[in-house]
């Protein structure tokens, strides 16, 4: 209840802004980017303007009760770091495709927002995919990067040689794996 109550002012400001665009009182932006036009604006209201307290923008809880909470500022900062990893370490550019075959762990959301920031096409996949499913998706999409967990890395390795466009493999795991970039280590 406290979280939803804190959002009223900010939500009304955002709705008011977009209502004014719809009513032709403000110019519609030529390009819209959720990460910079919404997330960063909320972060600015939270940090610089002091119009709202640092409430969770992201709140994740796993089955064991572990929590991850990020404010808008933290989510923006971490998504920019993830965007740099995709652009620099993975060598991806605007329009390139990346397949993320991950359970819905916090990194999934960071990578999703990072792709929005950079214009990289984010293609989500369920963690129930088989090697054959992964091969089909990699070939059909011509993805240059795949992001997965330690559990699915062997399935990716078994089909990677048949995917000519695949340039980098990013793993979300505690330990290293030969031939893979480790997201947690790069952070």
Automatic annotation (TrEMBL):
- Give the record's keywords alphabetically: ATP-binding, Fatty acid metabolism, Ligase, Lipid metabolism, Nucleotide-binding
Task: Give the UniProt record's GO annotations in the biological process aspect.
Answer: acyl-CoA metabolic process; fatty acid biosynthetic process
Gene Ontology molecular functions? ATP binding; fatty-acyl-CoA synthase activity; medium-chain fatty acid-CoA ligase activity
What are the GO cellular component annotations?
mitochondrial matrix
Q: Which domain of life is it from?
A: Eukaryota
Report which reactions are catalysed by this protein: a medium-chain fatty acid + ATP + CoA = a medium-chain fatty acyl-CoA + AMP + diphosphate
Which family does the similarity line name?
Answer: Belongs to the ATP-dependent AMP-binding enzyme family.
User: What is the name of the protein in this document?
Assistant: medium-chain acyl-CoA ligase
- Annotated source species: Piaya cayana
């Amino acid at each position: 209840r406290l979280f939803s109550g804190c959002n009223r002012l900010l939500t009304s400001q955002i709705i008011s802004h977009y209502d004014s665009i719809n009513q032709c009182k403000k110019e519609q932006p030529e390009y819209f980017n959720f990460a910079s036009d919404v997330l960063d604006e909320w972060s600015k209201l939270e940090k610089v303007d002091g119009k709202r307290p640092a409430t969770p923008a992201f709140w994740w809880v796993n089955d064991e009760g572990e929590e991850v909470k990020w404010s808008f500022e933290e989510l923006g900062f971490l998504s920019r770091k993830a965007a740099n990893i995709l652009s620099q370490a993975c060598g991806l550019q605007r329009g390139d495709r990346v397949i993320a075959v991950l359970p819905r762990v916090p990194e999934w959301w960071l990578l999703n927002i990072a792709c929005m920031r950079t214009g990289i096409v984010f293609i989500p996949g369920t963690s129930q995919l088989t090697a054959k499913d992964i091969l089909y998706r990699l070939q059909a999409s011509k993805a240059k990067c795949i992001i997965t967990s330690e559990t699915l890395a062997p399935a990716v390795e078994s089909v990677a040689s048949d995917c000519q466009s695949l340039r980098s493999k990013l793993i979300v795991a505690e330990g290293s794996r030969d031939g893979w970039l480790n997201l947690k280590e790069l952070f």
